[in-house]
Design a protein that fits this description.
Layout: E1 6-10, H1 14-27, E2 32-36, H2 39-52, E3 59-63, H3 72-79, H4 84-87, E4 90-96, H5 101-109, E5 113-118, H6 123-131
Parallel strand pairs: 1-2, 1-3, 3-4, 4-5
C-alpha cells in the first residue's frame, strides 16, 4: 500500500493529535494532515471535501474509540452511510489506548477498519502499515 496524500486524525486528545501529526509528517512530508478533536466536525469535513474533489484521493484515517460526544464506533456507523465511492477512498485504522480485548476484536471484525494500533502513533507503525 503506497503512502496516501491525505491523513486524517480524529481524537479528542489534542496532544495525541500533535504526536500523530509529527509522526505522519516524518514519513510523508508532502501529505496533507487534517486533525479533528470532534468526530462530528470530521464527518462534516469528509463529506464536504469529497464533494469538492476532482479526483480520487487515497486517505488514511486514524480514529480513536473513546471520545465524549461521539465515540469511534458511532463515527464508523455514520461513515458507513456515506456514498460507497467516498468510503472506497479511505483506509481507516483504529488508534486507541483502550486495553479492552473486545475493542480490538470489534475493530478486527469491522468491515471499514483496516487495523487496530495502540497509541501513540509512531513512525514505525506508519511504515509498517504502508510498506506492505
Amino acid at each position: 500500500m503506497t503512502l496516501p496524500s491525505l491523513f486524517i486524525v480524529v481524537d479528542d486528545d489534542r496532544g495525541n493529535n500533535l504526536i500523530c501529526k509529527y509522526a505522519i509528517a516524518s514519513i510523508a512530508p508532502n501529505a496533507r494532515i487534517q486533525l479533528f478533536t470532534e468526530p462530528e466536525k470530521a464527518l462534516k469535513w469528509i463529506k464536504e471535501d469529497f464533494s469538492n474533489r476532482a479526483e480520487d484521493l487515497r486517505t488514511a484515517l486514524f480514529l480513536d474509540i473513546n471520545m465524549p460526544v461521539m465515540n469511534g464506533w458511532e463515527f464508523l456507523d455514520e461513515f458507513s452511510s456515506f456514498f460507497p465511492g467516498l468510503q472506497a477512498q479511505y483506509n481507516i485504522f483504529i488508534l486507541s489506548s483502550s486495553i479492552d480485548p473486545e475493542d480490538k476484536e470489534k475493530a478486527e471484525n469491522h468491515p471499514l477498519v483496516q487495523g487496530y494500533y495502540s497509541k501513540p502513533l509512531r513512525k514505525e507503525t506508519i511504515s509498517q502499515i504502508f510498506s506492505g
